[in-house]
Design a protein that fits this description.
alpha/beta; Rossmann fold; seven-stranded parallel β-sheet; 10% strand; globular; binds NADP nicotinamide-adenine-dinucleotide phosphate; oxidoreductase activity; SDR_fam; oxidoreductase
Length: 352
Amino acid sequence: MVALDVVHASNARLRELGPGLVALFVGGTSGIGEFTLKAFVQNTVSPRVYLVGRNATAADRIIKECGELNKEAKVEFLRADVTELKEVDRACKEIEKREKRINLIVQTQGNLSLNLRNENPEGLDRKFTLNYYSRMRFISNLLPQLRTASTEPPHFSRTLSVLGAGHENAINLSDLDLKTTFTGKRCANHTILMNDFMAEEFAAREPGISFLHSYPGFVNTGLARELPIWARVALKVVTPLLSLFMVGADETGQRQLFISTSGIYPPAKPVEGTALAAGVPLAKGVSLSKGSDGKVRSGAYLVNWNGEVTGNEKLLSNYRSQGVGKTVWEHTMGMFQKVAKINEGRVDSATS
Ligand SMILES: NC(=O)c1ccc[n+]([C@@H]2O[C@H](COP(=O)([O-])OP(=O)(O)OC[C@H]3O[C@@H](n4cnc5c(N)ncnc54)[C@H](OP(=O)(O)O)[C@@H]3O)[C@@H](O)[C@H]2O)c1
């Protein structure tokens, strides 16, 4: 476990990366995304932050609170429902217009629901899209900006997807998007494992950027708001008991910021000659983490709530030897092409 004082000390050194870091928080209007965004704003010099979600009232509140934490911070809300990739693309275009580089992308978009498969017009399940396709699409669209961040001072470039690293289970390789075999449990299994492998695939292609997937622990947030009323009442009743095992809001924000920025999780090949390219320098006695494949400096990391590396090693190495990383990559890029074609048709029918 990374001690909390090590986390705080590392986050305080983020200022050494200098002014003007640019960050995108998708799902920053509530919960873990909000806590991490505020920790980022508090610990950086004149940051520019983009906040993506649907809830404009929450965004207004957060922007005001960020102004109190750091007067020099610039936080902008981009309203988007990212259960559709078309909306992801629209949000990315807005960001691309404003920024040549992005130093950090943190993604926490998600919900807790008991829904069955709920297809969007692009043929993708909406919850699956929140947990997986939208996240990969944001990264994929914004790779030019992440690359630029890795090549320009302070050479710092990272992405973090907060979901369920370490909670991997077997998946159905012949129905990766769960078109015909969807259940809530399988959706969790597929999106967790696919987040893992995409971190590895991106890291292998982009050696100047770190790709992380974390598990936040049990955190009291707005996650249950889309559950039916009986389930929300039941959850409220057991919350005092569960709170014994919960990670607090401030600790979660600080820890996820540490995971997003510490030099413990460096890119595979950070730019040479500048220590900051690997992330915030390590405190004495702290050593580099192993990557998801067990190798130091792999550039892809699966991280538990407390900063330790995690992952179902046996399952992952079995899947890795079967080439599942490549399968997941090709499936995802294939889906992006398929969806792009569907959306071209949607534009045509909207304009005709
Ligand atoms: N809390 C936990 O104990 C826990 C445990 C394990 C894993 N996780 C995972 O951690 C992630 C964050 O959870 P959280 O607890 O922070 O939940 P949360 O408080 O409900 O935050 C979820 C965020 O996702 C955004 N979001 C949801 N649907 C969206 C949509 N259609 N379009 C755009 N944004 C959308 C919400 O923004 P808007 O409402 O503004 O759209 C909100 O900012 C989730 O993936 C969750 O599965 C949480």
